[in-house]
Design brief:
With 117 residues, the chain is mainly beta. Helices cover 0% and strands 45% of the residues.
Length: 117
């Protein structure tokens, strides 16, 4: 079981991940503590596929199970937490969708800017 702390612990949330409008973004959908879905956009380097790998530039092709990066910011009760997600919002989620981050988050290599001198 994931030991939960309240010191801005870096975590992942189980969600659905789908392609966004641009190669560097993904649509994610998280189930809120009240049962409603929350959909938004995130940079792809904050998204993992169901195997726990950061999504590649060409994945996913359709909506799939995955995870989105988040950070615990507050405790609601034994089963619910407030978490900050990559779009800057703070949402309430059930403890059951909180997981350890499968990998570190690294900026994508294709975003490196090369300047001729």
């Amino acid at each position: 079981m994931l030991p939960l702390r309240l010191d801005r612990q870096l975590i992942a949330l189980v969600c659905k991940v789908a392609p966004g409008g641009f190669s560097g973004e993904r649509i994610f959908e998280v189930k809120l503590a009240n049962g409603n879905p929350y959909r938004s956009l995130a940079p792809r380097q904050f998204c993992w596929n169901s195997s726990g790998n950061l999504v590649e530039i060409d994945e996913p092709k359709t909506e799939v199970d995955g995870m989105i990066a988040a950070r615990i910011v507050d405790f609601i009760d034994d089963d619910q937490f407030m978490v900050e997600i990559p779009d800057g919002e703070t949402i309430a989620v059930d403890k059951g969708i909180i997981k350890d981050r499968p990998t570190d988050i690294k900026p994508p290599m294709e975003s490196a800017i090369h300047v001729s001198v």
